[in-house]
Amino acid sequence: MNKTAVYNKIEELKEDIVDYACNIVSFPTLSGQEKEAQEYLKEELEKLQFDSTEMWEPQISELKGHKAFITKRDDFQNSPNLVGTLKGQGGGRSLIFNSHIDVVPEGDLSEWEFEPFHGIVDNGNIYGRGISDMKGTDAAFLGVIKAFKELGIEVKGDLMFQSVIEEETGSAGSLSCALKGYSADAAIIPEPTNFAICPAQQGAAWSRIKVKGKSAHAGQRYKGVSAIKKTYKIISYLEKLEDKKNELFKNPLYKDNEIPFTINIGTIKGGEWPSSVPENVEIEVRMAIPPGEEVKEAKSFMEDWIREASQKDKWLKENPAQIEWFGAFWGSAQIPADHELVTVSKNSFSEIREEKNRVIGTPWGTDAHILTKYADTPALVFGPGETAHCPDEYIPIKDLMDYTKILASIIIDWCGIKN
Known about the structure:
CATH architecture of the largest domain: 3-Layer(aba) Sandwich
Largest sheet: 6 strands, mixed
Helix content: 25-40%
CATH superfamily of the largest domain: Zn peptidases
Structural class: alpha/beta
Number of helices: 12
Number of domains: 2
Low-confidence stretches: none
Shape: elongated
Mean pLDDT: 96
Strand order of the largest sheet: 1-2-6-3-7-15
Distance between the termini: 7 Å
Order of helices and strands: HHHEHEEEEHEHEEEHEEHHEEHEHEEH
Number of strands: 16
Radius of gyration: 24 Å
């Protein structure tokens, strides 16, 4: 089968692909509200004659205790996972297309020009919460399969579509897929990388650091110990830790990042009164976890670093800062930069886009660590779009159509097709 025929068919299906995208965005799939969207996708997979579809609500009792599991929820009611399988004809490699259906809240609606959950087409773009992160690529996948069906193309390797929940809050959906035994020879996660091909994904963890001081009247501040000033020292230790981590985990895929692995002070709270020496300060920190570092190791490294650095300060030595890990965390992962799926993706990209392709690492966490480490499935992050978590999130229709063609090419070359 000549790929040009596939690309031409995809162009013929442009209206259908845009409709898919607008329909999926119209479901407000905030955490706990994913069911209707998953039912829609299940119905579309069945129309495309997938051999099987499975939809289930992950059970916390089955996930609890796994080192990669975290959630703030008591259950996943109304939040089902969806997996569709298109069985191959044999003799090819299998591929998982893993996309998360959950989206972050829309935020202040006054900042939006376009309604966030309407899927509006305007001036060559599709607008809506989640269109870039990452519902547009669901439409691309459906478009590829529809093109294959209309052209009579049959893949040799199994093809799996995973629409998962909870990516934004800790990867429980992908973990549930992994623990159910879903695996393949490789996976693509179409996060909005603006077409960058990402074999490496850094992780992240959040911490809350509490620093204690000693209160006194401001007129005699020398009788107290300012928790704010001691927090300055903790922050300086974190800056040095950031330098150390970037030295230890140098990675050529991050060479163009000014600071590849950041430690960010996201919030700070402290003090009660202008005329009092502050006795308590609390900061919240997001720490990057570089590829090659495990979550547990990264946490211990930071704890040990602050404890050892604090020995240089008499007050902090006797009144050590307290570190509490909270919220979500994401592990890091990396597959070889010369993995064959990377090569196939680069070649497919070059067939469609004239620009130079980029092979880099992501500056944020994804579900790739779940598939790579716990589903025995090397995962590559690669998708169109670059807006996410912001007002008027959008994806250019041209980029969506180009990605649909690139994805078709990847599937043909990776899974193989029956002659």
